[in-house]
Design goal:
This protein is of the alpha/beta class. It has eleven helices and 18 strands. It has helices at about 40-50, 95, 135-140, 145-155, 170-180, 195-205, 215-225, 240-245, 270-280, 295-310, 325-335, and strands at about 1-10, 10-15, 25-35, 55, 60-70, 80-85, 85, 105-110, 120-125, 130, 165, 185-190, 210, 230-235, 250-260, 280-285, 315-320, 340-345. The strands form four sheets. Strands 3, 5, 6, 9, 10, 17 and 18 form a seven-stranded mixed β-sheet that branches. A six-stranded parallel β-sheet has the order 13-12-11-14-15-16, with helices on both faces. The protein has a three-stranded antiparallel β-sheet with strand order 2-1-4, with helices on one face. Helix 4 packs across helix 5 and helix 4 crosses helix 10. The model has no long low-confidence stretch (mean pLDDT about 95).
Length: about 350
């Protein structure tokens, strides 16, 4: 089968790999219909390199069941499915407490297990999610990143009527806008330096837009909230700059949720750091998307809100490409000024 395999920094190859087969009684082999490019994939491609040289990359996918093991129940060949790509050990202190996302050995397919930039992928049956009839493959390929965002929101104390700022309008930020609304936010402010992304943010539910190129983000947010600031500020860009700027957005006693990973040194100005203390902010980190009982309410909630249309994925998808364009596409994704939001490959 054709796959995209990561060999080193900026070295991803389109090549043939053996088709996965049922090896364990609970295995499910899935024909991949759509697979998305994650921001973490781009970072690993650009400057981190693979965990395992030559590993088949990718973890956001949906497809059709092609083969099942003899112990699999409730799933049959031909079913439309997505999958939770995350593995936990079940033995460490965090797992034993039920905090699966804090597992000491947490990993995903595409890292140390073959991933979904492939014609076929396989997972244990407990990782496989049946799709509602009205959720198509393009939408379902976004179940994993949506669950990542839901996991973060469940860790906050957001309540109906809250004001929320989303900093960074890539796919995670665009999903965060929608989850803020689902959690009851009365006003969501989208922040990005790319006006094209802000236009998409408006399409998926942002009430107002802020471009920091037009003035400091915290000043514009203050003006939009009658000088109070927001109840919850969500960092989705994963840059050193936004990681400090986000601290100036909440009101006194507000919350900051970090979901972006900057992969770089963060040197924070005193102005921003003092906001934590003087405004008595609550700082929350969020990692991955799983909870107990596995895979967690993040996944069932995502499936439900995709089926109702409250999670609107289509405006986020900027490119739909054959898998063979993977190497060229990844090189373009790391270039400045390229017009990409969410890329889907079709193996």
């Amino acid at each position: 089968m054709k796959t995209l395999n990561l060999y080193g920094e900026q070295d991803i190859r389109f090549e043939d790999t053996a088709v996965p087969v049922v090896q364990k009684a609970d295995d499910v082999v899935i024909k991949v219909k759509a697979v998305g490019v994650c921001g973490s994939d781009i970072s690993r491609y650009k400057k981190l390199g693979p965990y395992v040289e030559g590993m088949t990359f990718g973890h956001e996918f949906a497809g059709e069941v092609a083969e099942i093991g003899p112990a699999v129940e409730g799933i049959k060949v031909g079913d439309r499915v997505s999958g939770c790509p995350t593995f936990y050990c079940g033995e460490c202190h965090s797992c034993l407490k039920g905090n699966l996302s804090q597992c000491e050995k947490l990993t995903v397919i595409g890292a140390r297990h073959p991933g979904a930039y492939a014609e076929f992928v396989h997972l244990p049956a407990k990782h496989v999610l049946l799709l509602p009839d009205n959720v198509d493959y393009d939408t379902a390929a976004m179940i994993e990143p949506s669950s990542v965002v839901a996991h973060g929101f469940y860790r906050t104390s957001i309540h109906p009527g809250a004001t929320v700022a989303i900093m960074g309008c890539g796919s995670i930020g665009l999903l965060a806008i929608q989850w803020a609304k689902i959690f009851g936010a009365k006003k969501v402010i989208a922040i990005d330096i790319d006006d094209r992304k802000l236009e998409v943010a408006e399409k998926v539910g942002a009430d107002s837009k802020v471009n920091p190129k037009n003035g400091p983000a915290h000043q514009q947010v203050a003006e939009a909230t009658e000088q109070l600031g927001v109840d919850l500020a969500v960092e989705c860009a994963g840059s050193p700059i936004t990681s400090e700027q986000i601290l100036a957005l909440p009101k006194k006693g507000g919350e900051v949720l970090y979901m972006g990973i900057p992969y770089a040194q963060i040197d924070m100005e005193r102005f921003y750091f003092e906001k934590i203390v003087r405004n008595e902010l609550k700082i929350i980190g969020s990692w991955n998307a799983i909870s107990s009982p596995f895979p967690g309410k993040e996944w069932s909630s995502t499936l439900y809100y995709m089926s109702t249309g409250q999670l609107n994925i289509k405006p986020m998808i900027s490119h739909r490409l054959p898998l063979e364009q993977g190497p060229d596409t990844f090189q373009k994704l790391i270039q400045p000024n390229e017009d990409y939001v969410k890329v889907l490959f079709y193996p």
